[in-house]
Design brief:
The complex is a heterodimer of chains A (670) and B (159). With 670 residues, chain A is an alpha/beta fold. Among the domains of chain A are: 136 residues, Leucine-rich repeat, LRR (right-handed beta-alpha superhelix) (Alpha-Beta Horseshoe), CATH 3.80.10; 131 residues, Phosphorylase Kinase, domain 1 (2-Layer Sandwich), CATH 3.30.200.20; 96 residues, Transferase(Phosphotransferase), domain 1 (Orthogonal Bundle). Chain A has 7 helices and 42 strands. In chain A, a hairpin with a 5-residue loop joins strand 40 and strand 41. The two termini of chain A are 64 Å apart. Chain B contains 5 helices and no strands. In chain B, helix 1 runs antiparallel to helix 3. In chain B, 42% of the residues are buried. At the A-B interface, helix 5 and helix 6 of A face helix 1, helix 3 and helix 4 of B.
Chain lengths: 670, 159
């Protein structure tokens, strides 16, 4: 509906409800409308109405309950006569251009529940230094929501703030030029669910009485000048989901007890003067989506427990004094889209496991002391739009595929050893870029050893085990094992090291000469079905990089020795934990194991260029690492499909899964 | 035709085994009775009969929260093990639902509310809708609504 409202509307003397919300009405609100004594609801929000409200508004509307004129172009003052409409429960004049004072007479509206004056040009009386309207509103015992946001109130909060209705659920006064303290009486507002005083000039400490606000879900005090420590008083809410204290002058430690706020989704403590380490308890915030601790003076290392932040989308720890290495392992999860660790004192390599964060769009590791290569596995981060590793000590070839096609020289400047394309303003890479002594040695051995091996063939069987995917595990990416090494690691594949026997072969525990423990799955090379199982499992494990899937290190595909070298899982299988006397798991452990497993299966099902059906999910194939994190294993009967449902060359498996776990219909299908 | 729904079925069985402690091949099953039908008969309301007794050992501790959580898990498991593959959930839905079940459980044990569940009765035709509603409902219960961020026009005046 467009156009001007006819003044004749005022002649509808029995009209009770007029709703014309969200149209294109222009011109004035006819003043005759405010003379209809029967009217109960006037709703015209989100139109293009202009002009001002009549100074007598309210005098002739004894039944008006709702006045919704938000989102128009109304100007002038809010008539103080509004208080005569004594049955008003909802007043929405937000998003207009009203000027002048908020009339104190609004406090006479005893039935008022919602007062929304946000986003106007309202001011407060300059004669009193306090927001006196809050004292007046103390009379409105049913008030549930107050919105003053984005008005130049330019005043202080009175002590009588605490006298507002005990049923007040929301109070919004962000961007209001508020000064002075947050009154201690705020603790009286025990029904508060949301409190925002953001972007003002409040300069006190956070009142300890805030601990009485146990129903708070949102507390936004960012962009003020709050100082002192944050005390445990903020840790008492049962349902806090957004805590924003960024951009203040808070100091001291980040309290451990913040880890008790397990309902938190957003935590912003950025741009303060916090000096502690990052509390390990923050690892308990399993539902956190956004964690911002940037621009403080936090020290210590990156907490390994952050790997429990499985759904986090944004983690910003930049501009602190964090040291140590970036954890490898399972720190990076699929939902993580924004990660900044820039401007810290981090050392060591960039972990290849960053590629687990498949949704990553923003990655800033600049201004640290990182060394080593930029892992080629990051080429798989297809959504990466911003990448910055400048000002580090990185070396080697800059990856060139995937998102790396789009990054410019700025991403790489001030590293001493990077090489790559000329447009990146780095020297070109030599055919064999120096990667440190160990790698060069491996390279030389690769050339020389086969020659020696040829001469010794009669004495030893040498089997070069090649890494199928160098990106899987950077630590071992260049490692080669000989058959003899593996033989020694397993006591000659002895019974004592046998972890289990499956339909396709045996799994052994092996201790390598450097002390590292691995599992070695040896397939029966004589058996055709077993060989196919080997091929499939190797293919799947090389494709499927996921924190809940057992990592493969190397494989051997020699004619007489087919084996996979994979991670050793110290806690054995779920089968053991469920069905062995003396082992037990509580409900939450079981739930976590199921979530881990489901995540792994989902990953297999959702590949863009392949879909993998595991085909043999059962407790004995779910392994548990040292942290009891579940890791899916045994892909020997998996099926690799293209997304259009076509099977790949590996063909259907001859083995149909395990009785009891196989879906009905599958057994008869082949 | 191999399908991902085959894994979903096995995962449902895995869920059942993990929380009942009974293998699908347990000697008590056979003939008319299977792990699935055994669980199906106890829903709703008698979940205590099938879950692993270890999980309810300290009966008074978070009892309601545990029962709610376990009922939801069993319902989810049944939704994974429909006879017809097209009626099974997909793994994305399974992961989302498990996440929500966990979050609600954590919330309930922090106050031990009498656990609320919103998974309605188990009609295979309504499973999908239920699941969507369920995920949405759980999200709304746990994620306080974001209406505050938006222009607030839909006031409830009858509090």
């Amino acid at each position: 509906m467009a156009g001007v409202l006819p003044p004749e509307l005022g002649g509808l003397s029995n009209l009770k409800t007029l709703r014309m919300d969200e149209n294109a009405l222009i011109g004035n609100v006819p003043s005759a409308l405010f003379n209809i004594s029967a009217i109960e609801v006037i709703g015209m929000y989100t139109n293009l109405l202009s002009g001002s409200l009549p100074p007598t508004m309210g005098l002739f509307m004894p039944n008006l309950r709702e006045l919704r004129l938000g989102g128009n172009e109304l100007e002038g003052t809010i008539p103080s006569s509004i208080s005569n409409a004594s049955t008003l429960a909802v007043v929405d004049l937000s998003n207009n251009s009203f000027t002048g004072l908020i009339p104190g007479t609004i406090g006479n509206l005893r039935q008022l529940q919602v007062l929304n004056l946000a986003n106007n040009h309202l001011t407060s009386e300059s004669s009193t230094p306090q927001l006196s309207i809050l004292s007046a509103l103390g009379n409105c015992k049913n008030l549930r929501r107050i919105y003053f946001s984005v008005n130049p109130l330019n005043t202080t909060l009175p002590i009588s703030f605490g006298n507002l209705s005990s049923s007040l659920e929301q109070f919004w006064a962000d961007d209001c030029n508020l000064k002075g303290n947050i009154p201690n009486t705020i603790g009286n507002l025990s029904s508060l669910i949301a409190l925002s005083l953001a972007n003002n000039e409040l300069a006190s400490v956070v009142p300890t009485t805030a601990e009485r606000l146990t129903n708070l879900q949102l507390l936004d005090l960012q962009g003020n000048q709050l100082e002192g420590n944050i005390t445990d008083s903020l840790c008492h809410s049962d349902s806090l989901f957004d805590l924003s204290l960024g951009g203040n002058k808070l100091s001291g430690s980040i309290p451990e007890c913040l880890g008790n706020l397990t309902t938190l989704r957003h935590l912003n403590l950025s741009s303060n003067n916090f000096t502690s380490t990052i509390p390990l308890s923050l690892g308990n915030l399993a539902g956190i989506l956004v964690l911002n601790l940037s621009s403080n003076f936090l020290s210590g290392s990156l907490p390994l427990v952050f790997r429990q932040l499985m759904v986090a989308e944004e983690i910003d720890l930049s501009r602190n004094q964090l040291s140590g290495q970036i954890p490898n392992s399972t720190w990076f999860h699929k939902n993580l889209a924004y990660l900044s660790l820039a401007t810290n004192r981090l050392q060591g390599p960039i972990p290849g496991s960053l590629s687990f964060a498949v949704s990553l769009e923003f990655l800033d590791l600049s201004h640290n002391s990182l060394s080593g290569l930029i892992p080629k596995s990051l080429e798989t981060l297809l959504h990466l739009k911003y990448f910055n590793v400048s000002f580090n000590g990185l070396e080697g070839e800059i990856p060139s595929e995937g998102p790396f096609r789009n990054f410019s020289a700025q991403s790489y400047m001030m590293n001493n050893g990077l090489c790559g394309a000329p447009r990146l303003q780095v020297p070109p890479c030599k055919t064999y870029a120096p990667r440190g002594a160990t790698v060069t040695l491996v390279f030389l051995l690769e050339l020389i050893l086969p020659l020696i091996a040829a001469t010794m063939a009669a004495l030893y069987i040498f089997v070069w085990l090649r890494c199928p995917n160098k990106n899987v595990r950077p630590i071992l990416a260049n490692t080669r094992f000989t058959y003899r090494e593996l033989e020694q690691a397993t006591d000659g594949f002895g019974e004592g090291n046998l972890l289990g026997r499956g339909s396709f072969g045996s799994v052994y525990k092996g201790t390598l000469s450097d002390g590292m423990i691995v599992a070695i799955k040896v397939f029966d090379a004589e058996n055709e079905v077993s060989c196919r199982g080997f091929e499939v499992e190797r293919e799947v494990m090389c494709h499927a990089c996921h924190p809940n899937i057992v990592t493969i290190f190397c494989s051997s595909n020699a004619a007489n020795f087919k084996a996979l070298v994979i991670e050793y899982m110290v806690n054995g299988s779920l089968e053991k934990w469920l069905h062995t006397h003396n082992y037990s798991l509580d409900i939450l452990q079981r739930l976590d194991i199921m979530i881990d497993t489901a995540s792994a299966v989902e990953h297999l099902h959702s590949g863009s260029s392949w879909i993998i059906v595991h085909g043999d999910l059962k407790p004995s194939n779910i392994l548990l690492d040292e942290d009891m994190i579940a890791r899916l294993s045994d892909f020997s009967i998996a099926q690799v499909l293209k997304p259009d449902g076509q099977q790949n060359s590996s063909g259907p498996s001859l083995f149909l899964g395990t009785i009891g776990y196989v879906a009905p219909g599958n057994a008869s299908a082949s | 035709m191999v399908s991902t729904k085959k894994d979903v079925f096995s995962f449902g069985i895995l869920l059942m085994e993990t929380f009942t402690g009974k293998k699908p091949t347990d000697e008590m099953f056979g003939g008319e009775m299977s792990l699935i039908s055994w669980i199906m008969e106890t829903l709703p309301g008698e979940i205590e009969r099938v879950v692993d007794p270890c999980l309810l050992r300290n009966e008074e501790e978070y009892y309601h929260a545990k029962i709610t959580c376990l009922s939801d898990i069993m319902r989810l498991a049944l939704m994974c093990t429909s006879f017809s593959p097209s009626k099974r959930l997909n793994m994305k839905e399974v992961v989302d639902t498990l996440d929500e079940i966990k979050r609600l459980f954590l919330r309930n044990i922090s106050g031990d509310n009498p656990g609320e569940s919103n998974l309605e009765e188990l009609d295979p035709n309504r499973i999908r809708n239920n699941m969507k509603k369920f995920v949405k409902w759980r999200r709304e219960t746990l994620l306080p609504n974001l209406e505050w961020r938006l222009p607030d026009y839909q006031y409830d005046t009858n509090s």
